[in-house]
Amino acid sequence: MLVLKPISPYRLSNLLRRLKDPNLALQLFQNPNPQIQSSEPQKRFRYSLLSYDIIITKLGRAKMFDQMEQILRQLNKESRFVPNEIIFCNVISFYGRACLPDRALKLFDEMPFFRVLRTVKSYNSVMDSLSKCGEFEKMMQFYANFRKKVTPDVCTYNILINAWCKRGCLDDAWKVFDEMRWNGVRPNAVTFGTLVHGFCANFKLDEALKLKEDMIRVYGIKPNASLYASLMKELSRAGELSLAFRLREEMERNRIELDARVYSTLISANFKAGRKEEAFRILEEMKVSGCKPDTVTYNAVIHGFCVEKDFEAANEMLNQMVEEGCKPDIITYNIIIGGLCKEGKWVEANDLFEDLPRRGCKPDVLSYRTIFDGFCGCRRFKEAALILDEMVFKGYAPSAASAHKLVGELSQEDNEELLWKVLTSLGKANLVVANIWDLVILKACHRHMLSNVCELADNLIVL
Questions:
Q1: What contacts 104, CB < 8 A, 6 or more positions away?
Q2: Where are the PPR repeats (predicted)?
Q3: What one-character DSSP code corresponds to residue 84?
């Protein structure tokens, strides 16, 4: 009879790393030697810390948090080694990406029970997760306690600056920048990149350009491609395309490699300026330089074609990106669906929308809102009502303005059955707001849709 060789802890780590399916990886981790037959009693498997790290990371990335926490509890029972802090930093980050701030805080509080010393790294992980979850007040409260126990580093201040910039509070972001210098913490490229991006996002182009100069002249820090891309995007939006190209020349002089984001920004800017030939020249130059176009690059080109109403070229570019191994994302399809809807091509838009699952792309809330608005714009109210019902069933909702517009249009027609169907869907999504009440009650008064207005009000309250 064939006797299988037991899997060693080292080999388990290698096997776990190769497995792409987190469920299979979990099964292997929980039962590494299921078919070993021996007359001797099996010893308890001695997991390595690396195996724990790999399986926890796989489960966290797959958002299998209950299973991940089960492995953490098992890890806590290990007495042969002390877990690394980085494992917990990664888990806290997974919670942040999944918008689970309470779990992130809970794990941080439990770290001492794992015999793990919390340093500034784990504090920063919590700060970053709270920021990503939009829990600004909790983040600031955590930071107040943070400062009493550990010394903030440049990463801490970068997280704070980014949080203030996201809120549009640039003065407060600048105060954090001053505070870090007073505390002897030297800003880095990420610090300046965050501030420049914040200024650009708030249309403060002059301040952003000046900060870039100070970064080089005062602090001796070389800007990175991401910072240049932010400046180029804002310059293009302001109609300063020539200045954007000067920045590109500056990058080349300073031997800063142009990345896909920079190329994509320039391609998009040229399309907006009506310089399609120049946009294509940059795309070809990008390929020659060895910088492979990514989804963002192709989306910029496809958007340019859609703006020009050249949907045939947009579809050709869509096919080209697939042939070159670049997978379209939902943004790609939303761009084309939106362009078709704007031109009243609701049949083509709907065909593409319905084909999304076959293409391996799940429609998002913008997909539904775009096709819904497209049907409303073409006065295809029956199709719009069907999309609305499907949208609400999947937990999405149209914009308040679109819902009001549809009810308003239906109130002018005699199809009371369709109007009631739309109101039922809106009621499920809790979207029968005051202005919609006004429209429907006014219709009831004018056309006597129900025996009286009170009966209509009672039905709407039930919704």
A1: 92, 95, 96, 125, 126, 129, 130, 133
A2: 119-149, 153-187, 188-223, 224-258, 259-293, 294-328, 329-363, 364-398
A3: -
Question: pLDDT tens digit string along 315-373?
Answer: 999 999 989 889 999 999 999 999 999 998 989 999 999 999 999 899 999 999 999 99
Compute the Cα dihedral for 199, 365, 58, 359 and give only its sign. Answer: negative
DSSP summary character for residue 329: -
- Cα distance between residue 404 and residue 383, in whole Å: 17
Residue type, position 160, single letter: L
The residue-averaged pLDDT of 376-384 equals 88
Instruction: Give yes or no for residue 210 having a pLDDT over 90.
Output: yes
C-alpha span between 413 and 392 (Å, rounded): 24
Tokens (6 digits) for 337? 């669906």
- What are the residues whose beta carbons fall under 8 Å from the beta carbon of 59, sequence distance 6 or more? 22, 25, 26, 65, 67, 68, 71
Rg of the chain taking only CA atoms, in angstroms? 28
Neighbours of 401 (CB within 10 A): 10
Better-predicted residue by pLDDT, 422 or 64: 64
